[in-house]
Amino acid sequence: MLLRFDQILTISFTLFAVIDILGSIPVLISLKEKIGEINAGKATLASGFLMILFLLVGEPFLKLMSVDVKSFAVAGSIVIFVIGLEMILGIEFFKNDNDTKTGSLVPIAFPLIAGSGTLTTIMSLKADFNDINIAAGIVVNLVIIYVVLRCLTYIERILGKAGLMVVRKFFGVILLAIAVKIFKSNIGNL
Q1: Is residue 48 part of a domain?
Q2: Range 139-145, long-range pairs (CB < 8 A, 24+ positions)
Q3: Residue 97, Cβ neighbours under 10 Å: how many?
Q4: In this predicted structure, what is the pLDDT of residue 144?
Q5: 117 inside domain
Q6: In contact, 28 and 164? CB cutoff 8 Å
Q7: pLDDT score at 172
């Protein structure tokens, strides 16, 4: 049960790749435009809470609800697909309720940051690593998430309107592809 730097590093890189906070920047900027402002602290804490909670009780909770991990992943992929469609087509599925409190939580904390891919990965990591190192890897990623969310306005200024539009459309297609991949890899054995 000791903290091991090599394990924390492996877990951190794995979660960083799955969370893909840098690839989510166009989505986050798009959502920020819709809801007004993203509360970086609240979104980071909420996603961190979900990840730690899932680390501790994820699989038993899903079993209690009679939901398997694959069904959970398919549901998450559908939400990601809809967000991608919004980005590409410029239409709105997630209605703006002008409440920055909920906007920072849904769809940002869940499913964008702590989505089905992230939560499933956390459960998978439990097979090879102990919980304390997984929790440390989660914390490393939460720091990165917080910094990115706090710097969105600065990133938006650097890219400009035209740059944002191009990046948003491009990453919308990437999100669609990720959603299809998650869907396809989990639908076969349902």
Answers
A1: yes
A2: 139/48, 140/8, 140/12, 140/15, 141/12, 141/15, 141/16, 141/19, 141/21, 142/44, 142/47, 142/48, 142/51, 144/16, 144/21, 145/19, 145/21, 145/43, 145/44, 145/47, 145/113
A3: 10
A4: 96
A5: yes
A6: no
A7: 79
Tokens of 105: 């939580």
Contact 52, 123 (CB under 8 A): no
Q: Using an 8 Å Cβ cutoff, are 118 and 15 in contact?
A: yes
Give long-range contacts, CB 8 A cutoff, 24+ apart: 164-168: 164/26, 164/29, 167/25, 167/26, 168/26, 168/27, 168/29, 168/30, 168/87
Which residues constitute the domain of residue 21? 5-185
Neighbours of 60 (CB within 10 A): 9
Please state, as a whole number, how many other Cβ atoms lie within 10 Å of the Cβ of residue 69. Answer: 17
CA 156 vs CA 2, 28, 49, 98, 145: distances in Å: 41, 10, 28, 21, 16
What confidence score (pLDDT) does residue 86 get?
A: 80
The secondary structure of residue 36, as a DSSP letter, is S
Task: Tell me how far apart the alpha carbons of residues 100 and 106 are, in angstroms, rounded to a whole number.
Answer: 10
Residue 5's pLDDT is 95
Flag whether 40 is in a domain. Answer: yes
Whether 54 maps to a domain, the answer reads: yes
Domains identified in the chain, total number: 1
Low-confidence ranges of the chain (pLDDT < 50): none
Residue count of the chain: 190
